[in-house]
Amino acid sequence: MAASKTSTEAVDQKDFLEGPGQVTEHVEITQAVTWTAEEEKKLVRKIDMFLLPNIWLMYLLSYMDRTNIGNAKIAGMADDLKLTSSQYSIILVVFFGKVLARHSRTNQLTLSVGYVIFEPPSNMILVRTRPSLYLPAIMIIWGVLTCIMSVVQSYHHLIILRVFVGVMESGFAPGILLIFSSWYKRTEQSKRFAVFMSAAILSGAFGGLLAGAITGGLEGAHGIRGWRWLFIVEGVATIGWAIIAAFLLLDFPVNTKHLTDRERAIAIARLQEDSVTVRGQGENVGKIQSLVLALRDWRTWGFIFGYMVIVGSSTLSYFYPTLVHGLGYSSTVQAQYMTVPIYAVAFVCTAISGYFADRISNYRGLIIAGWLSFSMITSIAVCVVYNFTARYALLVLMAAGLWASNAISLSFAASTFGSMDAEVRAVALALMNALGNLAQIYGAYLFPSDDAPKYLMGFGVISGMLGFGAAMPSKFCLEMLNIFRTGKNQQKWDPLIPLQRKEAQKPRLSWLGLSLDLLLILCIITFIVFAHLAITSNGHILTEDSRAQFLLNVTFYGPTIFPILFAAIVGRALKALATWELQKGSTIGHVETLSGSTTLIGAIITQIQLRNLNLVAISLVVLWALSPVGGQASLRVLRQGTRVTKTNHQFYALDPMSSWEAGSSNHYPMLTHTLFASSLIASRKLYNKPQDIWGNLRIPMVEAFDNYQDHRWIKIPDNDTGITFSSLIGIPFDRELPVEQTSFTLNTSYMYLDCPTFHTSPREHEQPPIEGYKAPSWTNFTADPPSLENPDNTWLHYHKFVGDDGSIVANGFQITMASCDWGCSQWFKPREARRVIWESASAKTFAHIDCTLHTTYVDVKYDCLDGSCSPIEVRLSPNKPDPSHFSNLFSSDGKPHDPWNTRNFTGFEKGYSNIPSNFLIAMTSAFRMNSVRALVPLLGFILSPNDTTAIPPDGVFYEDVTSIGRAKFQERLSQLFNTLFLAGIEPSVIVGTMPVTEKEQYFATSTHTAETRLSENILVCNKAWFTTMLIICLIVFVISLSGAILRAITLVPDALGTLSIITLDNRCEKDLQKASMLDGLERSRLLKNVTIKLGNVRQDSPSGRVGFTAPANNEDVVQLHWNTYYE
């Protein structure tokens, strides 16, 4: 037989300490109502059957209607209505009550009314009507408005509809809070609120699934966009269920029609037994008075501020699709589906929390604080973790903590307000829900689209809100524990009523102290997390807004924050240890050593003044020495470093051994003349530059260096003016080299003239007038063929002394080159190197220079950065010519292993047989002489490359070319040969209009390997400093936990270090009253071996008294106990 419960007495709520001005009604049941536990259980199940499924579906539809705006946005609504990020935020905000759209002309703020403003009036109406009629009625209206939202065409129409939907929905959530608090006992509410909140959670999951199905499956059906179908389908479903709910929903216990008279009596009696006020019909406090009483109660405001931080969950719920979309799930339907796991995990956590919260209802505050702290940690982690998968997992966990704390906080508030009059409770619950939702106004602006994908501002603000919110329920729970320890009647317990007893009381916990301990523990955990992130981020690239850069920036705050945190934790822990030792009984010296060492300087001075030299004293000094070391470790654990990544890749360059095409019918000699002439004119500016005016690579002339013939690498000086290049035009190369630092070795070649015959002779004539100048006795090369093994070789000679009128110009020059009558081929016998003879006249001398023409093969190392290249080393190549020097088109015209000596093979042997003659024509006709006073830039370049257009000293004759010396002449004439030759291979490649890699080419290319060194700024973690920081942080973490535990198990008051300690009783006679003029530490030094104890000094009365005793002087003392009262 089940035990019966009887209620025959009215419960007088005046036994409770209410808020100001609140005296609840004395509701009596005149006849005894007796019920069994089984009967009560059956009644609760019946109430659940009518309320829970009905309310669950109603709230599910309500929350889906409220949050479908987020799914509609990513399904195309924002694009169709041309909504900006700020406009979307305003659309969210107007639903909840107030914000501001700023008018472009009047610059006025438009105040919107809706969800927030109408909640209290709605609950005032509800408490005076029947919920079964009122709630379905407003549900039908907002369902109709939701359907109308499907036809909006502009941003302003959507705002208006959202305002009215907010007005209608405003009465639903606070109405449900009132109904639950009017039907269930305090220890039954958490599970029911968890079921209630699960509707909101699953609305997100179902909303995501339904939105994905509707927007994807009905997109374009009957010419209607998918997001418009979303409003239609959910609006019609809301209207349909509202009609059904009108027949199922329970009213209040005193007027419901779904219970029998006995069931109603039991329902009322069990609530009265639990100190929940039950309102009868016709009982009115008054609308204004109920509002005033609710606003004057401090509990109302406490829950308002606490609930404001929890509404971060509601803010996030609107942005879940957007946040997930920003994490890399680019498909709209995929982003909507990926929100489902967020709600699924939140549902499980909320259900489990609600179940256990009823079983340990006295600890609901700690449950809320635990979930909020957990969400805060995950929110902070989201700010520093940028891996998409990790951030998604953290977002799932963060949402679970927020939703679970939301459900428990509602039951916490409803049970706390249970002793209020029903109408006052209705207003208080509505105010909490309404004003708490004001947080969603600024919350709607926390995740702007331009902050994607990291959303640091949103998660950062929510982290701060959660940190504030975690402390508030802890305070309420600790007040409850203190009340519980005083033995107060738990049936009359109100968790938010502070203990106001002034008489004897039991030892109690300090909510402020434990909250501070929790905060300090979280802070040191933050440093441990920072150390973990530091080591795991080692080697990560430093970029703007990256996690690595964020961690590096954070290190600069370590030397400031860590010592402060260290001092707070260690100081509090040492004080807690001293108080605990005092409770057990310890010597004055030991207690003073601990209590005086709560700072770094204090630890040192205390040991000196107490003359302490023991392990404890040394340990305390060493402990405090860890503070600056930890601060420096937090600064030096990370630094910026450089990582060089090397990659190899091929590139192409023009082969200077390509055939000379300037004289062929396929190319224009004019282009070659233009490039040759422009290079001569610009030689003054670019003569010693590593690249020509078109960016081509100039090849250093290895003959200009000493000891070049041993094939060793020759370092090129950094001073550009000291380099002699082989040509005024460089080697075209693949311009698609990386912009990063790139190095390569170019295997190439150039022509070089060696002039063993280098002499001058006097002119035969004196200087007559200019008109009497006669041509010098120029050499007749055709009558003096060179001695070549091939008898078919002939001379090709061209001179620069025939003017346009055909007269002889005596101040010119002539140049000739040995060639073959029928062309030179590898099939002929080996021969000597080509000979080049130069003759020129000055005013008094005649120069005759006989040279041999060779090909010099060199290897040149280049360093390039962002398209700018410079040679760093050069050597005479020890290798034979690369086979790639010979183009496919003319591969039969020469081979690297042909019978010729490679020194005697030049680019003139490739291509057509008339190349040498065309080459000399191009050189001698580059600047035509019209008179004896005409400039000869070729002579000017040989004499001075920096002054090619200089006028001769006497206006007619240039200086003798032999005056510059043999080496300079060889270099400069070779430069002219190479410049003209490169210009005539392919002018379009030289100027960059044709790439080197052009397939339809008449030139050869060489393939080379380049090495690119990519220098990246990376985060470097110093392993030694990391180990130091981690060890110190773990030591501080253990100290912080130990301090919190000691403070929790210490029963005596914390009196050390305060003047109020002198007001405590003491039984320390005799020795302790000596030397009253000594300083405190001096007296402690003299008495440091005296044992004292803080405990109960009065045992002969019902109430004890806390005071100091000296057990060494036979004073009786006992320890404090939790269940004993003390004055």
Automatic annotation (TrEMBL):
Entry keyword Thylakoid: no
Membrane topology per record: Multi-pass membrane protein
Pfam families in the record: MFS_1
Subcellular compartments: Membrane
Domain Major facilitator superfamily (MFS) profile, residue spans: 51-475
GO MF terms, alphabetically ordered: transmembrane transporter activity
Primary location class: membrane
Statement: the UniProt record of this protein carries the keyword Oxidoreductase: no
Cellular component, GO annotation: membrane
Membrane-crossing segments per the record: 133-153, 159-181, 193-214, 226-250, 301-320, 340-357, 366-388, 394-414, 426-445, 457-478, 511-535, 555-574, 613-631, 1024-1046
Protein's recorded name: Major facilitator superfamily (MFS) profile domain-containing protein
Natural source organism: Fusarium fujikuroi
